[in-house]
Amino acid sequence: MRKIDLTNFQLATSETARHINRRIALNIIRRHQPMSRADVARRSGLQRSTVSAIIDQLIGEGWVTEGASPASARGRRPRFLHLNVERAGIIAVDLRPGMTRVGLAGLDARFVMQTEWVTPAKPDEFARKLARTVTDFRNAHPEMVYEGVGVSLPGRVDQSGTLMFAPNLGWGQVNIRRLLESSVDLPVVFENAASACALAELWFGRHPDDVKHLVAVTVSEGIGVGLLLNGQLFHGTDSLAGEFGHVTLDESGPPCSCGKTGCWEQYASNSAALAYYLGDTGMIRPAPQGAADDAALTFDEILRRADRGDARAIETLERMARYLGIGLAPIVTGLAPQVLVIIGAITGAWNRVGPILEDVVRSRSMSLIKTRLVPTDPATQPRLRGAVTLVVQRHFAVPNVS
What we know:
It is a single chain. The protein has helices spanning 14-32, 37-44, 48-60, 123-140, 176-184, 193-204, 265-268, 270-277, 299-307, 311-335, 350-364, 382-396, and strands at residues 64-67, 80-83, 88-95, 99-105, 111-118, 145-153, 156-157, 163-165, 188-192, 214-219, 223-229, 232-233, 339-343, 372-375. It has a 5-stranded mixed sheet with strand order 5-4-3-6-9, with helices on both faces. Strands 12-11-10-13-14 form a 5-stranded mixed sheet. Helix 1 (14-32) crosses helix 2 (37-44), helix 1 (14-32) packs across helix 3 (48-60) and helix 4 runs parallel beside helix 5. The protein folds into 3 domains: 14-72 and 79-83, Winged helix-like DNA-binding domain superfamily/Winged helix DNA-binding domain (Arc Repressor Mutant, subunit A, Orthogonal Bundle), CATH 1.10.10; 88-194 and 383-396, 2-Layer Sandwich (Nucleotidyltransferase, domain 5), CATH 3.30.420.40; 201-379, Nucleotidyltransferase, domain 5 (2-Layer Sandwich), CATH 3.30.420.40. By secondary structure, the protein is α/β, with parallel strands linked by helices.
């Protein structure tokens, strides 16, 4: 139960009920399609006349289609309702320090176009590059109604649209919403990458319906944590909740881009793994043989070398797994989520790192907590799918109306 905030509330009106009923019907169709109008009425508890009016409106706006159904044994043949997943065009942006991937998807988060390019060093250059990409997508698929742009990014954006904290991106505090909306001429929704991935798990993940407490951890250049508590994203003060990657593990550890030293992501991120493999961690440790040939080494290459039996690569991944577990244990103990989802290339080596990570978490957290640790499939592109979810939920989530 939520306490009513008497300093910030809105009165319910008849329009509120219409908006809520509309989204209930839309979500029921999305979840149980194909189905008839009578099915929607039964599942929702709404009167048939109310359902009929809602469905007529959704069909008129192109959100729902109504088509022929198989022949019924007797009586009038019902017509089945389907969500028109191809109606809406959603631009999804996975913004990362090195590369940016942009995709065009429908309401089902299936991509019909994708491209990627090197992330520009300055936000205004990024805006111009994204605007050109959006124009290319719209020209290629003019039949779609473009609903907006979802941006998954390695940082935090406040309610005004200002980039507040993104140390690995290096853009400083800029009103990125104003910049991008003026460039692409579409509504733009931003979210921290880990939080966007948590939302994607809620909307598109294969979890039981009773999963309401979920933590998503993105492991890439840094480490991000998205908190889905009681079915709602938790942002905290100034939208900064979840920055566990910048919790100090060792004050004498390596310097971090956030300005501190020894942060969790300096031990458990892809960047940390690369640094360790190359002997560039600030520790007294000789560089590996062939280091001169490793100037362009990538984390994916470390994974491949481990598969080929490279002892240093195997040691690097096992160390990374231990530190991931060390950082995850207090999250599991403190929040007791039902599911903790790991996102990143590291999941491609789950047979190697998963048992280590789970053992460390189990040994450092309360035995009563039964959180499931689940690796995501990189092929599902969870960060890009999370960006799609940011726009999808604007039409399917509980409405903010007065």
